[in-house]
Amino acid sequence: MWTLLTENSILGSTKRYPDSQLHHPRIMPSNIFIDHVALFFSTQCSFTLNVSGFPVADMTQVTLPQRRVMLSDLITEEITGCFQQEQIKELKLYKIANELLQTERAYVTRLHLLDQVFCAKLTEEAGKGTFPVEVVKGIFSNVGSIYTFHSQFLLPDLETRMSQWASTPRIGDILAQLAPFLRMYAEYVKNFDSAMDLLKQWTERSVQFNAIIQDIQSQEACGNLTLQHHMLEPVQRVPRYEMLLKDYLKKLPEDDPDCSQAEKSLNIISMAATHSNMAIRKMENLKKLMEIYEMLGGEEDIVNPSNELIKEGQILKLAARNTSSMERYLFLFNNMLLYCVPKFSLVGQRFTVRTRVGVEGMKVLETSNEDYPHTFQVSGKERTLELQASSEQDKEDWIKVSVSQLCWGLRGESSIKTLTYLCSCVFQKEELGKRAPRWIRDNEVTMCMKCKEPFNPLTRRRHHCRACGYVVCYKCSDYKASLRYDGNKLNKVCKDCYFILTGRADAEEPVSGKKRGILEVLAQVSGNSFLCGFLQYSTDRTKPCQRVWCVIPQHDALVLYLYGAPQDVKAQCTIPLLGYQVEDVQRSVDHPPTSFRLCQSKSVHCFTADTEEVKLRWLKVIRKAVIGEIPECQTPVDDNLANGCHEGVPDGS
Fold it and tell me: Where does it live in the cell (predicted)?
């Protein structure tokens, strides 16, 4: 025993404390006490104090009894604050420990339901030979051992400790002693996936098995929850221990003797929780797969632990023949893409799977289209889709998650930004028929891409080759060949693809001996042209302008080629630019401000661009070409149609 100076000692008394209480957290800290004493017994004071309701600026005006009263009030306030803070901390620790106890009681009740009700009744029925006993063991694994551990060891110890909380306010020692036994959860968690499969399999296979489960699930003790839900609780319990123990450690003082025991038990529990969290994610994924399975009308077999949903969402699909858009829905998994069509339903969302595209060998490419922004293309062996997202961010998300799952992905600044209207129908011979092509749209060509004859709505209509995607006439598509991407079914193909796929030779028109005409030059694009895009063209003021696709190719930099459409394989005419005069037409009644002319003797060619910027781009290139200089490459004028390269396609030329 020794004497401790307190507020009473200043008032003329002394109080004695045992050594064990000298450092008790509820005793006022010595530095605060010394500060108060030094303040109130100092002869100088530079601040105003309130004594009996009157401000006092100088401590010398305060008598010693008044100082004693003032100091006594301040010290009492400090001690009261310390007591309140400690009481709050102790209350929080008690609440955490009590929550652990209450949830443990509820958990043991669930374990009793699993082991003593579900497992016991199914085992009893299995003993009659209705279904194998091994099935029951495979489903419930070691849930009996888990139930015994919690009901006979952990729960009784927690109840005893909480009844003695006033004298022993700690739980870390109990958890440190029993936490190693939580390793038995590893067996249950590892068996969880196969248990779910067995449960689903025998619920469908055995009427008696299903009847027992349905009967128990209808009881009040089940709380209208399924057996699968109750079986998930042991998987979720260990992460719950980890969460409560982390919260307990945050509220526990660092110098508390229970701190080391709590940290030790947390390390053991965290290892077990890692396995449980993985099983929880798998269970949530299976639950989501079941929801999608119901959305698809149970027609697609997607409920498999190996399948993982990556992304889903509504999207627009651009039609292959024209540029109309249709509402569609995508489900992207780790191994496939489901392209679905919404169907009418009074109960929730329902879809019909139109195409299943395998991830292996899939290609995802960003595209650009003025009429339809936020577009990208998915090309698989089974089908090629051009899709439109709801926003630029949505498009970026689809491309990002898709490329991360694909065996092959393309997304580079140099290749993506210029490959805008991607011609994915470009195939090497060994790829022909193995991958679905991107169809050239009807409005991208004005003539057959094989025989170069112009289309008309009566006698020469448009047809698509299912192998290369070209738009051809009926004569050039009067062939059929089996395509591997379509399950080796016979499909309409063009003449060139037919001979390549069947391995036959064309005796009538040898491929190697065919010569091109002077206008039979493919409509070049940004990748191999100085400039390309749509312009309004006319040679006579009295005649209406015609919208043409204009190209200045890199291999022939002094010639301007005019095509009916971006994918045409034959130009309507050419203009040798060398020696022409370029006139920037000013605004007039006959000419809009975006017009310019090419003049040479009596030959006059009038052009009109869509914007002033496009006009200046063309003038910059043409002005160099007419004097024999090689122009600089310009960005595509029409980004949505800046592609038409057909090199490497199965063309006779």
Answer: Cell projection; Cytoplasm, Cytoskeleton
As given in the structure block, the two tokens for residue 114 are 């699993």
Q: Could you please report the per-residue DSSP string of 63-115?
A: -HHHHHHHHHHHHHHHHHHHHHHHHHHHHHHHHHHHHHHHHHHHHHHHHHIII
- Angle 363-368-371 from CA coordinates, rounded to 5°: 130
Q: Annotate 512-551 with b (16+ C-beta within 10 A) or e (fewer).
A: eeeeeeebebbbbbbbbbbbbbbbbbbeeeeeeeeebbbb
pLDDT score, position 424: 37
Contact 340/316 with Cβ under 8 angstroms? no
Query: Tokens at residue 339, please?
Result: 């392209």
Tell me what pLDDT residue 401 has: 83
Q: What is the rounded CA–CA span in Å between residue 130 and residue 123? A: 10
CB-based contacts of 492, cutoff 8 Å, min separation 6: 463, 464, 465, 466, 477, 479, 480
pLDDT score of 507: 43
Cα distance from N-terminal residue to C-terminal residue, the chain: 111
**Residue with tokens 């440190």, as numbered in its chain:** 176
| Main-chain phi, psi angles of 371, to 5 degrees | -75, -30
Give CA–CA dist 648/44, Å, rounded. 98
| C-beta atoms surrounding 136 within 10 Å | 22
Q: Do 133 and 223 meet the contact criterion of CB atoms below 8 Å apart? A: no
H helix runs in 252-385, sequence order: 259-295
Q: Distance between CA atoms of 20 and 17, rounded to whole angstroms?
A: 8
114 Cβ contact partners less than 8 Å away, ≥ 6 residues apart = 140, 143, 147, 230, 231, 234
Task: Name residues of the chain where pLDDT drops below 70.
Answer: 1-64, 66-85, 275-276, 279-280, 299, 321-323, 368-371, 405-430, 505-527, 540-542, 587-590, 634-653
Which DSSP helix (H) or strand (E) runs through 238?
Answer: helix 227-251
pLDDT in tens, 479-527: 899 888 888 889 899 988 888 888 876 644 544 445 555 566 666 554 5
Q: What is the pLDDT of residue 61?
A: 63
Q: Which helix (H) or strand (E) holds 392?
A: helix 392-405
Tokens matching residue 553:
């190719």
The answer for residues whose C-beta is within 8 angstroms of residue 257's C-beta and 6 or more apart is 170
Non-local CB neighbours of 583 within 8 Å, separated by 6+ positions:
596, 597, 598, 599
Pairing of strands 336-342, 325-333: antiparallel
Q: Which residue has the tokens 């042991």?
A: 234
State pTM to two decimals: 0.47
* DSSP assignment string, 153-219: IIHHHHHHHHHTTTT----HHHHHHHGGGGGGHHHHHHTHHHHHHHHHHHHHH-HHHHHHHHHHHTS
Number of neighbours of residue 282 by Cβ within 10 angstroms: 17
Cα distances from 580 to residues 212, 264, 286, 601, 623, in angstroms, run 92, 88, 71, 9, 9
Amino acid found at 77? E
Cα separation, 531 vs 638, in Å, equals: 10
CA distance 157 to 211: 38
- Paired strand residues for 608: 536, 595
